[in-house]
Design a protein that fits this description.
- The structure holds two protein chains of two kinds.
- Chain A is of the alpha+beta class.
- Chain A is built from 16 helices and 14 strands.
- In chain A, the strands form three sheets. In chain A, strands 1, 2, 3, 4, 5, 6 and 12 form a seven-stranded mixed beta sheet that branches. In chain A, strands 7, 8, 9, 11 and 13 form a five-stranded antiparallel beta sheet that branches. Chain A has a two-stranded parallel ribbon with strand order 10-14.
- Chain A starts with a helix and ends with a helix.
- By secondary structure, chain B is of the alpha/beta class.
- In chain B, the strands form three sheets. In chain B, strands 5, 6, 7, 8, 9 and 11 form a six-stranded mixed beta sheet that branches. In chain B, strands 14-13-12-15-16-17 form a six-stranded mixed beta sheet, with helices on both faces. Chain B has a five-stranded mixed beta sheet with strand order 2-1-3-10-4, with helices on both faces.
- The radius of gyration of chain B is 29 Å and the shape is globular.
- The chains are: A alpha+beta, B alpha/beta.
- Chains A and B meet through helix 1, helix 3, helix 11 and helix 12 of A and helix 1, helix 4, strand 4, helix 12 and helix 14 of B.
């Protein structure tokens, strides 16, 4: 072969290699540039976790530690990315196929939400997408229950008049025509204002309504018939009519701290949120907040649920379980105390270093609650009946 | 081989090598071209188009917090954060009216991924519209939301006047203000239109007062004739409305002092701003926290959970959220006179401007008005158009030769936008053109009757001749005076891009006619369009009437007309 031909083919070959090399490099580079895509990309197992907002900070902090420790599975390093997302928003995105990228695992507030998403997929695909038993079953990570948060000045007035704080007390305060002046409080406090989350925006609002129904009927298992009872509806309507914002906005403990007694005298809200915001409330408003536990209690257990569809590989599912195990480790569970969360791991006590349960004991928070009755998880129909009632009678839809 | 043959052979080799290198570049060029084409097809987008622009999270914000919010965005961008693959984590702030934010998202035309309106009320409206659009009760587009700055809505009034009506010995309510407005014909007060939350609050407060309630407002209450009569009677006492551009309002109060207005509805932060910027001899403003209750401007920052949201946007949002809640950013928020979202930051510390000296009280307000559900709010906003003080407004437009081309095209679009914004068909609008002479193109009439005529007249505007600005304003004033309608707001919105050079009217006589010689008060709002407009002359016309002068250009003229429409 002539030398010029050799040079010709060498140059063409070189050009082709350069272009193909560039193409491959560019594509690989692009994949590395989209870190939220869950896949076995190159050498990393990406675990994409969508977390409910009340525990998102704890999950993120734990993920940071997990990533820093460089855990591996079958030789692949695991990397966890956490996206905070309200449980109801996540449910809607699953149902509308808008989860992009699809999370490897979801930590909703409550297993109510897992069941609702499963029911929706079962209708469409004929199978569950989150398992309720076996190795990949949903496992509670931490627990937080709904408790009364009430400004001390208001609590004293209600206790003087009614003896205790309960849904019945709140009802009577809510319907007092003369407002606080009639109840024995100061006239400038205006009417009694209930602080609970909008159940369409935040699952804790729905849980509070379930708790109210439990107390009204004095039982733990609420049925659709109970919700449809006109007397109960009138009673609940009078309570909900004292919410300060019916426009559809969310209401959280953060709001109770930011707006103080201006917009909420008392509310049934998530214990962990109450504890996290306690210092802020004391700084911003001269009146401290007191925590009171209701007789009929609802709670969230923040289950770690692994997506079982074919969109994620077995390796990714197992990598998610590795992170789940880490979240349940004694160290991570102890860290949760600083966020006002009760550990799901029974080996970790509620008290201890950095525990908000110790710090705010004087404000009424208890590690072990002596006298409560746990509500049973209502079924889907009951929840939907409550939401429909709320839409029609409170939200005005 | 001879020397010459070797030289020839060597030059052949060089030629071949040269050709081969040329071929190499051609092959690489073709491959790159093919790759670019393939890449574009694979990615499904045109890399040379907008997608190739530098990425950013675009946040639409409402105007009242512009100084504070833009400072926060600058602070965030100055950190120079990047994604793992080197893309800048950047926020772009986009100024937008809250109502427009809601409409853009519902129409699928939003070019932003997060919003920070003045109040959460808009988030409720947005989600209600979204679930209606999707036909899914549970559907929501408002995602993660954070509050970084809040401020209660207050009635700002002069300290002397506040003392006259009983402050600080007793709590002053909406009822006191409204009673004063009804009983004192010289009392001048203003609230923004319902497109801002302080305007919505003032309107809700009137409907509550009209219905004799402070909670549980229903559609029946709002539409009851007694309530409508009560609200209409009060609205008649309003001097004029406004766009909720509170900084502009406060600037005017700083310039004019007590002559401006006796009372106006703003967020508490504006009272702090006034008192920290007033001249020493100027009277203080104080914040009255209404005894019946108030609302909060809570400035939520909310991520929009649309299908277009990317992981990049989420990442920027998370970082921006972290930044605006950081100690540095929260101190900035407090310095601007807002109550910071970080409630562990004391409002009574030495660095806090929230002091009695600055006319505010961090322990207030004591209670709030109940925010009704989205359905009732929508009815209040609709019904307000019937109860509000109606308007006679003349649009006085410069059609001189200098307005030719793009200037005129943009003006026509702006005038159409002005008409679109005024939803009430009972408002009266007319059109006067001036160039070398003056023509009343469309006489004042209710929009229900002349909207189409006005639109056609706007489309037919034609630029030619000189600038008889004073004659144009004088003609509009003459017609308004002839009508003698004291029930309505009488106003002129005049726009010019040049200098007066053709009028018979002189400035002194025009001002005399607009003020001392006027049978009905007429407010003149002026738009100085471009750099050549005579600002001094426009100020001389507008300021004695209690109006304003705004500067506009090709980019802003539409927004300016839209803003001015909220005054009526």
């Amino acid at each position: 072969m002539k030398r010029s031909r050799i040079i010709f083919f060498a140059i063409v070959g070189l050009a082709v290699i350069i272009v193909i090399g560039g193409l491959i490099w560019s594509r690989v580079g692009k994949q590395e540039g989209e870190p939220l895509t869950p896949e076995v990309g190159g050498d990393v197992l990406e675990v994409y976790v969508v977390s409910a907002l009340p525990i998102a900070d704890w999950v993120q902090e734990t993920a940071n530690r997990f990533n820093a420790e460089q855990h591996t599975l079958e030789g692949y390093p695991i990397h966890v990315t956490v996206t905070p997302m309200d449980g109801l928003t996540a449910k809607g995105r699953y149902e509308r196929d808008e989860m992009d990228p699809l999370p490897t695992a979801w930590i909703p507030d409550s297993r109510y939400l897992v069941e609702l998403v499963n029911a929706s997929y079962k209708e469409r695909l004929g199978r569950d997408v989150f398992l309720t038993d076996g190795e990949y079953r949903a496992r509670p990570l931490v627990i937080s229950l709904l408790a009364w948060g009430i400004y001390d000045s208001r609590a004293q007035v209600l206790e003087d008049r009614f003896g205790e704080i309960s849904w019945h007390t709140i009802h009577d305060a809510a319907v007092a025509p003369g407002g606080w002046a009639e109840l024995g409080g100061r006239p400038e406090w205006g009417y009694f204002k209930l602080a609970i989350s909008n159940p369409r925006k935040n699952i804790s609002g729905l849980a509070a309504m379930v708790a109210a129904a439990g107390e009204y009927y004095g039982k733990t298992n609420i049925t659709v018939e109970d919700v449809a009872n006109p007397e109960f509806q009138t009673w609940l309507g009078e309570i909900m009519g004292s919410m300060s914002d019916l426009s559809g906005g969310t209401y959280t403990v953060n709001d109770l701290a930011l707006f103080g007694y201006t917009t909420g005298d008392a509310g049934q809200l998530l214990e962990s949120d109450l504890l996290v915001n306690m210092q802020g409330i004391q700084t911003r408003w001269a009146d401290p907040l007191r925590i009171v536990y209701p007789e009929y209690v609802t709670w969230f257990d923040f289950p770690f649920t692994v997506w079982m569809g074919p969109e994620t590989s077995a390796l990714e599912k197992n990598a998610a379980l590795e992170f789940q195990k880490y979240l349940l480790s004694e160290e991570a569970q102890a860290q949760a105390l600083a966020y006002g969360l009760r550990p799901a791991n029974p080996n970790v006590p509620v008290t201890g270093e950095g525990s908000l349960f110790d710090r705010w004991a004087d404000q009424g928070v208890m590690g072990i609650i002596p006298r409560t009755t746990a509500m049973r998880s209502p079924d889907r129909e009951v929840l939907q009946a409550l939401l429909r009632w709320f839409d029609l009678n409170v939200a005005g839809r | 081989m001879s020397k010459g043959a070797r030289r020839r052979s060597s030059s052949h080799v060089r030629l071949i090598l040269l050709l081969l290198f040329g071929l190499l570049f051609a092959v690489i060029g073709c491959c790159c071209g093919t790759y670019a084409l393939l890449g574009s097809l694979l990615d499904g987008k045109d890399e040379t188009g907008p997608a190739a622009e530098e990425p950013a999270l675009i946040v639409a914000y409402s105007s009242e917090k512009e100084p504070m919010f833009t400072a926060l965005v600058e602070g965030f961008n100055a950190q120079g954060l990047e994604t793992a693959d080197g893309r800048p984590l950047r926020v772009v702030a986009l100024r937008l009216d809250p109502e427009e934010m809601v409409e853009a998202v519902l129409d699928g035309e939003a070019d932003f991924q997060a919003i920070t309106p003045d109040s959460s009320v808009w988030l409720g409206q947005l989600d209600a519209g979204w679930s209606e659009k999707l036909g899914d009760e549970g559907a929501a587009v408002v995602g993660e939301t954070v509050r970084y700055a809040v401020s209660p809505v207050v009635i700002a009034t002069w300290e002397g006047l506040a003392r006259e009506i009983g402050w600080p010995e007793r709590a002053i309510g909406w009822g006191d203000l409204l009673e004063r407005a009804r009983s004192d014909p010289d009392f001048k007060w203003s609230h923004p239109s319902t497109s801002s939350s302080s305007g919505l609050l003032a309107t809700l407060a009137m409907f509550y007062a009209g219905a004799g309630k402070t909670r549980g407002l229903t559609v029946e209450d709002v539409t009851a004739q007694d309530t409508l009569d009560y609200v209409a009677a009060l609205e008649k006492t309003v001097r004029y409305y406004g766009e909720g551009n509170e900084p502009a309002l406060i600037e005017q109060a700083l310039q004019e002092g007590r002559d401006f207005l006796d009372a106006f509805v703003v967020q508490e932060q504006m009272v702090v701003y006034f008192n920290t910027h007033r001249r020493p001899e100027q009277e203080r403003l104080v914040a009255l926290y209404p005894a019946e209750g108030t609302l909060w401007e809570d400035h939520p920052l909310a991520l929009l959970e649309t299908a277009d949201l990317t992981p990049y946007h989420r990442q920027v949002f998370a970082q921006f959220r972290e930044y605006i809640l950081s100690s540095e950013a929260q101190q900035l928020v407090l310095r601007h006179g807002y109550r910071p979202g970080d409630h562990t930051l004391s409002l009574t510390g030495p660095d806090s401007p929230l002091t009695a000296e600055n006319g505010v009280d961090p322990a207030e307000p004591m209670t709030s008005l109940q925010v009704p559900n989205a359905g009732v709010i929508a009815i209040v906003r609709d019904v307000w158009w019937y109860t509000k003080r109606h308007t006679n407004v003349y649009l006085v437009v410069d059609t001189s030769g200098s307005m030719r081309g793009e200037k005129m095209t943009q003006t026509q679009a702006a005038l159409r936008a002005f008409l679109d914004q005024i939803q009430g068909d009972m408002e009266r609008v007319g059109l006067i053109e001036f160039d070398t002479g003056v023509r009343t193109t469309v006489y004042l009439d209710e929009l229900g009757d002349n909207r189409a005529i006005l639109e056609a007249a706007v489309d037919a505007l034609y630029a030619e001749g000189d600038t008889a600005l004073l004659d144009g304003v004088a003609e509009a004033n003459r017609q308004l005076q002839r009508m003698g309608d004291t029930e309505r707001i009488n106003a002129i919105v005049v726009m010019t891009d040049g200098r007066e050079n053709a009028s018979y009217t002189n400035l002194q006589s025009l001002i005399w006619d607009l003020t001392e010689n006027a049978q009905v008060p007429v407010v003149v709002f002026s738009i100085a369009y471009g750099d050549d407009a005579d600002m001094e002359l426009l100020r001389a016309i507008s300021e004695p009437t209690g109006g304003q002068v705004r500067e506009g250009d090709l980019e802003t003229i539409q927004d300016l007309y839209k803003i001015l429409s909220t005054y009526f």
